[in-house]
Amino acid sequence: PPRPAGMGDVPEPCPQAPLAVLSKVELRVSCKHLLDRDTLNKSDPCVLLLMQSQGQWMEVDRSEVIKSNLNPVFAKIFTVDYYFEEVQKLRFEVYDSHGQAGVGTHDDDFLGGMECTVGQIVAQKRVTKPLFLKYGKFAGKSTITIISEEISGNNGYVELAFRAKKLDDKDLFSKSDPFLEIYRIDDDRSEQLVYRTEVVKNNLSPIWEPFKVSLNSLCSCEEKRKLRCVVWDYDSRGKHDFIGEFFTTFEEMQKAMGENKVQWECMNPKYKIKKRNYKNSGIVVLLDLKIHRVYSFLDYIMGGCQIHFTVAIDFTASNGDPRNSCSLHYINPYQPNEYLKALVAVGEICQDYDSDKKFSALGFGARIPPKYEVSHDFAINFNPDNDECEGIQGVVESYQSCLPKIQLYGPTNVAPIISKVARVAADEERTKEASQYFILLILTDGVVTDMADTREAIVRASYLPMSIIIVGVGNADFTDMQILDGDDGVLRSPKGEPVLRDIVQFVPFREFKNVSGAATRSC
């Protein structure tokens, strides 16, 4: 794709580097003129979203089923990660659903499909395309419309609980079966369905289940944006009866926080004109509203949060004798070894967010002076009271002067250093200030000996303001590291407790060592 203006020089791509997520995108789906596959009623459509992965179509998500409707507007919002630098192929498939049997994938249930890319939808914001049956046949006049919206960084979500009282009765032999729809009114006056509640059967004073929606979806994060709320009487043939509507804003809804409640008259404009004594078609009450703010990493940085950077270096014997040119710790006067390259690549990025530019530098797996006992968390400047070095250069100098004084030994125990940084992070957590975030960079040449303790330490640390970057140096087997990364499944402690969030990123340095300096850092 063409390079956006203002992006400057894009670094050369990294080999096998995970792509940075540019943003998340919300997709809303509606269809028109669907084929009628049912003999007695209309089709009951459902949309499946598939993404192409390594040439295969994989189902990612599916919408709700809308009963007896050939022009459905689906309440389900699909969320996809958007990678600017990758062609992400999507396929939308519409099926006629059959009650408890679910969505059939037989040809006679297939109402049509459409393929496009995430980039096309993001660029056009609204895409309407015809639906095709098998072998490229048009599905009559059927079309599908996808509307995209990028989720802004400073996004949160809101939990809402509605009920209604004394709604109009639309049914002859029973009471109405009400459900509520909320629409956001956009700048172009078009309406976007935000949420559709469940149907409460035979009840003129329904209490709907509480639900959550993103602030982005509800009001585009603008508190004064107009919202239209509509109450319907459900009809199984798809011809829902209009009970009434009211208009509000998120700003007004927020009065329902705490013990307060907000209520609106549900109005039917036709009745208001025709009926002289018409008051309303019922009352809708917002019983409760809870806001859950979700702050981005950038929000914290711009709010003054400092990054505290700790580097931990593997000094186990498997690295080889530092005096031997084959050793991973060999100090070559003409070029830095892999440990130094990895340290500089990560450290140079982190130092911009650390105002004092002082980095803790620790070693593990060596016998250290004066008694030459094995230590798994020693300061490489040999000052146990202050393990900080002045900038990245200070860490490099401490590393070079420490090597001749220690004996490379073992085993490769990583848990003590993770626990050490976690203790400092826990002290910060208790202040409730969110003024410091801790990054631990572990540079190691391979297999971790204390795997069970390390998993336990990572699960504990996942509750704290810290992240761990593990860089694998050399050509060893890094299977253990991939397990700690958790990308192939959720990392769990030996007792089975999962991490609260994924805080470990593993990078095998051999895949990046031949990439130029700037690109190595971004990788």
From TrEMBL:
One example GO MF annotation: calcium-dependent phospholipid binding
Gene Ontology cellular-component terms listed: plasma membrane
Domain VWFA, first and last residues per copy: 308-507
Sequence ranges assigned to domain C2 in this UniProt record: 3-131, 138-265
Protein keywords: Repeat
SMART domains listed in its UniProt record: C2, VWA
The UniProt record lists the keyword Repeat: yes
Pfam families given in the database record: C2, Copine
Listed PROSITE patterns: C2, VWFA
Positions of transmembrane segments: none
GO biological process, one term: cellular response to calcium ion
InterPro entries noted in UniProt: C2_dom, C2_domain_sf, C2B_Copine, Copine, Copine_C, VWF_A, vWFA_dom_sf
PANTHER family: COPINE, COPINE-7
Entry's family note: Belongs to the copine family.
Name of the protein: CPNE7 protein
Taxon lineage: Eukaryota, Metazoa, Chordata, Craniata, Vertebrata
Name of the gene encoding the protein in the UniProt record: Cpne7
